[in-house]
Write a structure and sequence with these properties.
The complex is a heterotrimer of chains A (about 260), B (about 325) and C (about 425). With about 260 residues, chain A is α/β, with parallel strands linked by helices. Chain A is built from ten helices and ten strands. The longest helix of chain B is centred in the N-terminal third of the chain and has 36 residues. Classes of the chains: A alpha/beta (about 260), B mainly alpha (about 325), C mainly alpha (about 425).
Chain lengths: ~260, ~325, ~425
């Protein structure tokens, strides 16, 4: 991969360390994310998967004391450059969270809000429809756009949150265990949706669910916790290879369910 | 637990079984007496309410039974001059409204601004310093605020707007200082409401590329709205019932005016002045304080009940 | 903010141009939010300074009796024996006897004697006073006014906050007045309030938290009622106290029932009972919170050992909740200490120089004294009102500080 320097990666990190105060939570992450593919981040609890994901759109900024050392490059530019406005970063790199968190507003407003604050000039109705169609929710809610979003089921709410993220027109969507609060059927729907979306968007997903990573992602990064309690990436590659022929013993143990 | 014991104590004779008592009878006199005493203590507070309603009601009836006093004149009259038998409560009501209105003009924007700053912006360290300072403001006795209004605020207002325009005792000064007094109430209750909004909603908005301001105002604030409204209503009730600031700084003597630069006595100020004076019991002036007290009690009670009903609603959503 | 460089080239719509304005708006509002928080703090500072401002400053003295008729040299050079003579010759016998029984004249220090001679023989009086900050920054203004109006006056920087202020009782002359009567009144008042309200409040809280968990109609009524009472204006409590304790229970509160020669029901007992009712809802709510914070596992452990409900409460729940309850009580008491309106209604005396001697005596209290002095037109009364406020605030702050430190200490221990 080193000779592909001219290639435009979706996200590229070089020796990234992430700290909470003095505590180094994640260390030495060197990772190149393939554009318009699904990359999953797996690993045991507490190994810093979510921390790494949240560092990709600077959501860690809101945690007091959190800071990074090293670079996170988006289209070749460091998003931690002091001249960069983090708000702009989050417009370009959207996020879907662990628990569905729709705003206590109508379905329509949930999707339109992000576009509105970003100064979207075209028809909001079209945008709402487009995003709901893309997130495979349109057929279920098209007659009840004014209903409160909280009246939807958990799985619908999570797809609404994906639609909401799409409305801001990001290039990358970060998903932090998006299915952990959902039942298996809703989970499958989300996975289908991810596959569909990966034609247009780069998707990075943190998951606890081995099968999910195995069946839904193109690339897999395996993180584990080191003896100094800092998480680090010890394996990264094409999913099928990581799952069938891991280079590292720890990866093999984790994947085959021996710990974690 | 009590049920299971009573089953084992169930009359053995009726079942025709020789029953050896394993458990003691479920009668612990000392426990019951203690429970009774504690219940009685709880009931004291009910008697307080009954006392308030009964006394205000009884004395008000005496007042309205006086010759020449009618409920209609009381509620609609614009002159309050007991010496000539004019008992129209409106001058006292309007000045109460004006001082409260001025207070809310100060307390709502500042209180909400402070709440948003403390809940959404301030770092932990800053909050730990600022919050106790605002709490001190809430703990200052109202008579001290009254002193502050009269000796500090009034001279400043007279300096700004002119000695001829602003009277020595005026509603504006009392209202402004009252606003400062109510500020910590609104800010701390609203901050609690904002704080109760789940973190995940903020994350969602920020993740969409919203600024912190947009997140606070368009997402967090509306989600906390019922708690905030309940805080504001409680603030209004506090302003209406506040006595010392208006008694010291707003002036004595009813005055039917809407000009905040003028002196005018509020309902509470009137009650304080009449009862603090040397008027004998059972004069019309003296009896009138109960009628005004009843009106004040009803207004504040309704405001408090509405405030609590609204705040209960927001607790149901997030707890 | 620093000029953000647009590092992203492929733009789907014009969001980046827009962003700069949004960020500008956001930072303006942030500044406004911060300002409104600071306004509270700034006003607090101004309030304290404005009171300090009145408590110190330049004053102008004038003798009512010309001192040259009594002494020929400066008073500092007058020997002690002569000072005593001046007092004995010029004051009436009763006053001399009072002074002598307080502390024999011969044993008194010279400065003490000078103070008595100046205030009681020469009748030195303050004719004008000036607040602290103006005294520091524009003293000449004051000097010229005084020179014009009172040519004989002596000017001096005076702290109105003196030890005598705490030990002297009420006087019609501001510089001789003190708050002893009011201070004792306030202290006795809060003692009565605690004695009545604490057991009632804690018992109610135990009932509501421990015995009425099953949510009976009675407990719901009591709880709603307490919530409502907490919002009733204090002046209404004053009216309640007036009708019930002062008038209806007059034989009891005036002490006549107990064979005491009480004049009327406007006694410190009636006021204390009124205050107790006033703080009861606050006290109950605070105590409830403390009891609710006791972990349920503690109760279950006790029940598991076969303890009765009361044994569980007495041996486990209350000791655990006690620090919280006491902190809450202190906060409730500090409310009672500063309350003024109910005392006015119940009938605290505004001019009284006799210390409260028992439950059935007439009384005054610190806030009443502050109110009374504030409403007088003379500047000197505002000066002593400011000092009385300082005394009150120091008492309140130290009570609250104790409560907060205590709470933190307990929390750290657990």
């Amino acid at each position: 991969m080193t000779n592909q320097t001219s290639k435009q990666w979706a996200i590229e990190t070089q020796d990234l360390d992430i700290f909470y105060g003095d505590f180094r939570a994640v260390k030495n992450v060197t990772l190149k994310i393939e554009p318009k593919k699904i990359t999953s981040i797996i690993g045991p609890s507490g190994c810093g998967k979510s921390t790494v994901l949240r560092s990709f759109n600077r959501m860690n900024d809101f945690i007091p004391g959190a800071h990074v050392k090293g670079e996170v490059l988006f289209q070749g530019q460091n998003i931690y450059d002091p001249r960069i406005d983090p708000v702009q970063v989050r417009q370009r790199i959207g996020m879907v969270f662990q628990k569905p968190n729709p705003f206590p507003k109508s379905i329509y407003e949930n999707i339109a809000w992000g576009a509105k604050i970003n100064g979207y000039k075209e028809s909001l109705n079209d945008l709402v429809e487009e995003c709901l169609v893309k997130s495979a929710l349109w057929d279920e809610v098209k007659d009840q756009l004014q209903k409160p979003a909280l009246s939807l089921s958990g799985g619908q709410q999570q797809r609404l949150c994906i639609a909401r993220a799409l409305a801001v027109k990001p290039e990358i969507i970060l998903m932090d265990e998006p299915c952990s609060a959902l039942d298996p059927i809703a989970t499958l729907k989300i996975e289908d949706l991810m596959r569909e979306l990966s034609n247009q968007y780069t998707i990075i997903i943190v998951t606890h669910n081995m099968q999910q990573a195995g069946r839904a992602s193109d690339f897999t990064a395996y993180f584990t916790m080191d003896t100094d309690r800092a998480g680090s990436m010890i394996e990264y590659g094409v999913t099928s290879q990581v799952f069938t022929n891991p280079t590292n013993k720890s990866t093999e143990d984790y994947i085959s369910g021996r710990f974690g | 637990m009590q049920k299971s014991i009573s089953i084992s104590n169930g009359s053995p004779e009726s079942l025709g079984i020789e029953h050896k008592r394993i458990f003691r009878n479920n009668k612990r006199w000392s426990e019951n007496i203690i429970k009774m005493l504690l219940t009685l203590a709880g009931i004291v507070s009910i008697f307080t309410t009954i006392g308030i309603v009964y006394e205000l009601g009884k004395e008000s009836l005496l007042f309205f039974n006086l010759p020449g006093v009618t409920l209609r004149d009381f509620l609609t009259g614009t002159t309050w001059q007991p010496t000539i038998g004019k008992f129209g409560v409106l001058p006292l009501v309007t000045s109460t409204m004006i001082t409260s209105l001025v207070a809310m003009f100060v307390a709502i924007p500042l209180g909400l601004g402070a709440a948003i700053f403390l809940s959404e912006y301030a770092a932990d360290k800053t909050r730990k310093v600022l919050k106790p300072l605002l709490e001190i403001l809430a703990g200052i006795p109202t008579v001290v605020y009254g002193y502050f209004a009269l000796t500090f605020m009034t001279p400043i207002l007279r300096g700004i707007f002119g000695q001829d325009n602003v009277e020595i005792y005026n509603m504006l000064s009392a209202g402004l200082v009252m606003g400062i007094m109510i500020l910590p109430l609104i800010s701390s209750m609203s901050e609690d409401a904002l704080h109760a909004v789940p973190r995940s909603l903020r994350d969602a908005a920020l993740g969409l590329g919203a600024t912190k301001f947009e997140t606070s105002i368009q997402i967090v604030f509306p989600a906390a709205l019922s708690g905030i409204i309940s805080a504001i209503i409680l603030g209004i009730s506090r302003a209406v019932g506040e006595t010392m600031i208006v008694a010291i700084a707003a002036g004595s003597g009813p005055n039917f005016t809407f000009n905040p630069f003028k002196a005018a006595e509020t309902m509470t100020g009137y009650i304080a002045r009449i009862s603090g004076g040397d008027l004998g019991y059972d004069t019309p002036d003296y009896n009138s304080i109960f009628a005004i007290g009843l009106l004040l009690f009803i207004v504040t009670l309704v405001l408090n009940m509405v405030s609590r009903a609204i705040s209960r609603k927001y607790r149901e959503v997030y707890e | 903010m620093k000029n953000p460089v647009n590092l992203f080239s492929s733009i789907s719509y014009s969001k980046d141009l827009h962003l700069e304005n949004r960020q500008k708006k956001a930072s303006i509002w942030k500044a406004l939010f911060r300002l409104s928080t600071l306004v509270g703090v700034i006003v607090l500072a101004i309030l304290i300074l404005s009171i300090v401002n009145q408590a110190f400053g330049l004053v102008a003295f004038e003798d009512i009796n010309d001192r040259n008729e009594f002494i020929s040299t400066s008073i500092i050079d007058v020997p002690k024996t002569e000072l005593i003579q001046l007092i004995e010759n010029n004051l009436n016998k009763n006053r001399v006897r009072t002074l002598d029984t307080e502390k024999p004249l011969l044993d008194r220090s010279k400065s003490d004697l000078i103070r008595i001679v100046e205030s009681e023989v020469f009748k030195q009086r303050i004719v004008d006073s000036y607040p602290l900050f103006q005294s520091i920054f524009t003293p000449n203004e004051f000097k010229s006014t005084v020179a014009e109006k009172y040519p004989d006056a002596i000017m001096e920087f005076k702290s109105w906050f003196t030890p005598q202020f705490l030990t002297e009782s009420m006087s019609k002359t501001p510089e001789l007045a003190g708050v002893r009567t009011a201070l004792l009144g306030s202290l006795l008042l809060i003692v009565i309030t605690i004695v009545v309200a604490f057991p009632l409040g804690v018992s109610s809280a135990i009932y509501l938290e421990e015995y009425s968990r099953q949510n009976t109609w009675l407990s719901r009524v009591i709880q709603t009622n307490i919530d409502n009472l907490a919002g009733v204006p204090s002046i209404i409590y004053g009216i309640l106290g007036l009708t019930i304790f002062v008038r209806a229970f007059e034989p009891l509160t005036s002490g006549r029932f107990f064979g005491y020669e009480g004049a009327n029901g406007r006694t410190i007992l009636a006021a204390g009972l009124t205050m107790a009712l006033l703080i009861l809802p606050i006290l109950i709510t605070n105590a409830q919170e403390a009891i609710r914070a006791v972990p349920n596992s503690l109760r279950q452990a006790s029940y598991g050992l076969g303890a009765t409900q009361w044994q569980t409460i007495w041996h486990h729940v209350l000791p655990y909740a006690l620090p919280g309850i006491l902190t809450g009580t202190i906060l409730a008491i500090s409310r009672a200490l500063g309350e003024t309106a109910p005392l006015i209604i119940v009938g605290a005396a505004t001019y009284i120089s006799k210390d409260p001697s028992g439950l059935f005596s007439n009384f005054t209290a610190l806030p009443i004294q502050i109110y009374n002095w504030t409403t007088r037109p003379q500047q000197e009364f505002r000066n002593i009102a400011a000092v009385a406020i300082l005394v009150l605030m120091i008492m309140l702050l130290s009570m609250n500080a104790v409560a907060i430190l205590w709470r933190n200490k307990i929390q750290n221990k657990r």
